[in-house]
Amino acid sequence: MAHSVPAGQKWWSGGKSPFNVEYGKLMMWYFLMSDAFTFGAFLISYGSIRFATNGWPDPNEVFRAFPLMGDTHLPLVFVSLMTFILIMSSVTMVLAVAAGHQNDRKKVTFYMILTIIGGLMFLGCQAWEWTHLHSEGAWWGRNPFVNADGSAATTNFTNFFFTITGFHGFHVFSGVIINIIMLIKNLRGDFEKRGHYLMIEKAGLYWHFVDLVWVFVFTCFYLL
User: Fold this and answer.
1) CA 131 to CA 109: how far, in whole Å?
2) Domain limits of the chain?
3) Average pLDDT over the chain, rounded to an integer
4) Residue range 23-223, CATH number
5) Which of 92, 104, 125, 157 is a Cys-bridge partner for 82, taking CB atoms 3.0 to 4.6 Å apart?
6) Are 204 and 212 in contact (CB under 8 A)?
7) Cα Rg for the chain, rounded, in angstroms?
8) How much is the pTM?
9) DSSP track, 74-103
């Protein structure tokens, strides 16, 4: 049962929402829900076109390159590495939030640095992948890859790929910026002065959302 608010006191004055949840955290959940609808619309649109089309490029042929090694006989290895990096950055974020609950400023700093490094590594990997595909002639409005059955492919594949992975990459970039700001505030001792690390937890919610969305993007483009 929710706690009652004393007469004359506004429900938001104590930092709690009507659901007895910290107000900022509730707003983050609202934002993530709206963002999930956007990603959902993109992926549903992609799925509708993908399964309404007779032919589609084979991801094992499209995504088989690896930095400094060129085309390999181990398709999807590079994107699997990208996925591993992002998942590990989500683990370090969990550890940062846990350290915040213990009011351990040094551990929060350590794990936030690892999370930021993971995010930057993922963005670097995505930049390389985009650069490599562009060098092969792939871009919005251009698709050099044939369908799995050998027939000519439309530009639907590349248009959706660059749009959705680019939109996700922008979210990762935004998350890295947010985490850098949280790290700076932690180094300044802002959270220690407040007596809590709720801001780290809110940043963690966003970062885990980005990680979860990548699982769906990875499945749709690289596995199906």
Assistant:
1) 33
2) 23-223
3) 88
4) 1.20.120.80
5) 125
6) no
7) 21
8) 0.87
9) STTHHHHHHHHHHHHHHHHHHHHHHHHHTT
